[in-house]
């Protein structure tokens, strides 16, 4: 029976390639658990966990600045609520479709379980493209999006947050619209502004958490981040704060990217240069090539989608930290990383490394951490924001940061301990998938056939 689980899931979800990829990866590791624990098979947990509890799809009409009426598609995938309310980000990007959101919601189940906080898995978003849109257009779109979404979420039911294309500005408009519709000021979203219910350190949490995780991995090898060269992709929320934490720990971040290409600064991105990136991306919403125009020691390489590999991953470094999007490191990239002697790959993005690339890394002994473990600091701090909102309290930045570090250490150690228990010593991917799965599977069994 176990052999056909994957076939059954794929047959039921034709064409959902990203979702299949995420399910394949978890199944690869969890198969061993199913073989050892017949109760998971008896309760048909794997089939059930791969089926969303609910998917909401809706029309999002909005008027642009020229008076044209546009239509986008909105989604919320409420994947699993066995251990807590649905929790996960919203992504606004033209590539968004059901397959991508289901893969993200599926990953989120296990990631959230690993944090140790009571959060179920969910994800949502829209194929709306925020690029080139005015503030007013973004506001009108997000308000229209929330008019429908508000019917399906609640602070004890489903608590969205940001992801690609959804940052502080969008969370503000979404929160305002929800409050107006429901006449209720509650923690319906996380990543809120700090004057209106947001937690300190939430903006920093994913990038900082990633570097904490990478540092725990290095510590295990009796190494530190000091002096290590890091190639980072992306230049959004996760990449910015990953670079910040690298700088704080005397590492050297030498790259940043967006969908137009990447910059390489062999001297390292300093605090001042990072501030330039933050202003460029968060305020001016410009493109990354401006960095190379401002700092003459840096070079800009335009993205070449026909090349079959990304030259960014062919830069000599010690650590690779993909922080942009899914499937951004393929097998050819992984071979380049190995050729250049990369020591560690830790994922800031969700599923940035293809299965073939993961295989290349692992076969060559590269220390590899999957996003569901290494990027969990963002959602973990979202969980801390929920706790503060429920309690009506605010914690200091130091308190939240300390909790974030403890959570990342807990995930790191749990991954290793679980991997070892299942005969996969040192395999962070196996540890993350197995530990996350067991926690949720046990809760599903305890709660009955739902
Ligand atoms: P942002 O929107 O802030 O930044 C995304 C960055 O990735 C931009 O530089 C963007 O470039 C680039 N990017 C996006 N899509 C593509 C693409 N198709 N090809 C090349 N570059 C691309 O998003 P975040 O930093 O929040 O998210 C980055 C990753 O981290 C995502 O995988 C997300 O799911 C994951 N993540 C985010 C968390 C969070 O708390 N925000 C938590 C955990 C994971 P451009 O502007 O040109 O599109
Ligand atoms: O992928 C993720 O974990 C996020 N985008 C953050 C989700 C959240 O609820 O903070």
Shape: globular
The multimeric state of the shown protein is single chain
Cα separation of the termini: 21 Å
Say which molecules are bound, naming each kind only once: NADPH dihydro-nicotinamide-adenine-dinucleotide phosphate, (2Z)-2-iminopentanedioic acid
Write out the strand line-up for the largest beta sheet, numbering strands in chain order.
Answer: 1-2-4-3-5
Outline the low-pLDDT stretches: none
How would you portray this structure in words?
This protein has helices at residues 2-12, 17-36, 38-42, 45-49, 98-114, 135-149, 168-182, 202-220, 237-248, 271-283, 289-294, 331-339, 355-363, 371-374, 377-391, 397-421, 428-447, and strands at residues 54-63, 69-80, 86-92, 120-126, 158-161, 229-232, 252-253, 255-258, 261-264, 299-302, 319-321, 344-346, 367-369. By secondary structure, it is an alpha/beta fold. Strand 11, helix 12 and strand 12 form a beta-alpha-beta unit. Helix 1 (2-12) packs antiparallel against helix 2 (17-36) and helix 15 packs across helix 16. It is globular, with a radius of gyration of 21 Å. The site of (2Z)-2-iminopentanedioic acid has 11 residues, from strand 3 and helix 15.
Sequence-ordered SSE layout with sheet pairings:
Layout: H1 2-12, H2 17-36, H3 38-42, H4 45-49, E1 54-63, E2 69-80, E3 86-92, H5 98-114, E4 120-126, H6 135-149, E5 158-161, H7 168-182, H8 202-220, E6 229-232, H9 237-248, E7 252-253, E8 255-258, E9 261-264, H10 271-283, H11 289-294, E10 299-302, E11 319-321, H12 331-339, E12 344-346, H13 355-363, E13 367-369, H14 371-374, H15 377-391, H16 397-421, H17 428-447
Parallel strand pairs: 3-4, 3-5, 6-7, 6-11, 11-12, 12-13
Antiparallel strand pairs: 1-2, 2-4, 8-9, 9-10
The site of (2Z)-2-iminopentanedioic acid has 11 residues, from strand 3 and helix 15.
């Amino acid at each position: 029976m176990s052999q056909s689980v994957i076939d059954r899931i794929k047959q039921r979800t034709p064409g959902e390639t990203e979702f299949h990829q995420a399910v394949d990866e978890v199944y690869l590791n969890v198969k061993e658990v199913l073989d050892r624990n017949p109760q998971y098979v008896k309760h048909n947990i794997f089939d059930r966990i791969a089926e969303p509890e609910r998917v909401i799809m809706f029309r999002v009409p909005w008027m642009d600045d020229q008076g044209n009426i546009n239509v986008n598609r909105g989604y919320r995938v409420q994947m699993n609520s066995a251990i807590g309310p649905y929790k996960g980000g919203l992504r606004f990007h033209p590539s968004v479709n059901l397959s991508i959101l289901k893969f993200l919601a599926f990953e989120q189940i296990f990631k959230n379980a690993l944090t140790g906080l009571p959060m179920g898995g969910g994800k949502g978003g829209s194929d709306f493209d925020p690029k080139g849109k005015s503030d007013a257009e973004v506001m009108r779109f997000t308000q229209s999006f929330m008019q429908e979404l508000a019917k399906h979420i609640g602070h004890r039911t489903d608590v969205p947050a940001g992801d690609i294309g959804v940052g502080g500005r969008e969370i503000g408009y979404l929160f305002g619209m929800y409050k107006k519709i429901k006449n209720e000021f509650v923690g319906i979203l996380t990543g809120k502004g700090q004057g209106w219910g947001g937690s300190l350190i939430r903006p920093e949490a994913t990038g900082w958490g990633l570097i904490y995780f990478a540092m725990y991995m290095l510590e295990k090898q009796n190494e530190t981040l000091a002096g290590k060269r890091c190639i980072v992709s992306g230049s959004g929320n996760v990449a910015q704060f990953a670079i910040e934490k690298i700088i704080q720990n005397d590492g050297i971040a030498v790259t940043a990217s967006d969908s137009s290409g990447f910059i390489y600064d062999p001297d390292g991105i300093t605090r001042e240069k990072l501030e330039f990136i933050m202003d460029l991306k968060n305020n001016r919403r410009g493109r990354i090539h401006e960095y190379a125009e401002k700092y003459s020691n840096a070079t800009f390489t335009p993205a070449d989608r026909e090349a079959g590999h990304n030259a960014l991953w062919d830069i000599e470094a010690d650590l690779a930290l993909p922080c942009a999007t899914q499937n951004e490191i393929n097998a050819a990239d992984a071979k380049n990383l190995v050729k250049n002697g990369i020591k560690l790959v830790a994922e800031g993005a969700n599923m940035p490394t293809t299965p073939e690339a993961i295989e290349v890394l692992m076969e060559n002994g590269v220390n590899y951490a999957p996003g569901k473990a290494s990027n969990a600091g963002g959602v973990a701090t979202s969980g801390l924001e929920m706790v503060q909102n429920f309690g009506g309290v605010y914690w200091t930045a130091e308190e939240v940061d300390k909790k974030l570090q403890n959570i990342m250490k807990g995930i790191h150690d749990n991954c290793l301990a679980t991997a070892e228990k299942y005969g996969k010593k040192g395999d962070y991917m196996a540890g993350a998938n197995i530990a996350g799965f067991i926690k949720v599977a046990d809760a599903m069994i305890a709660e009955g056939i739902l």
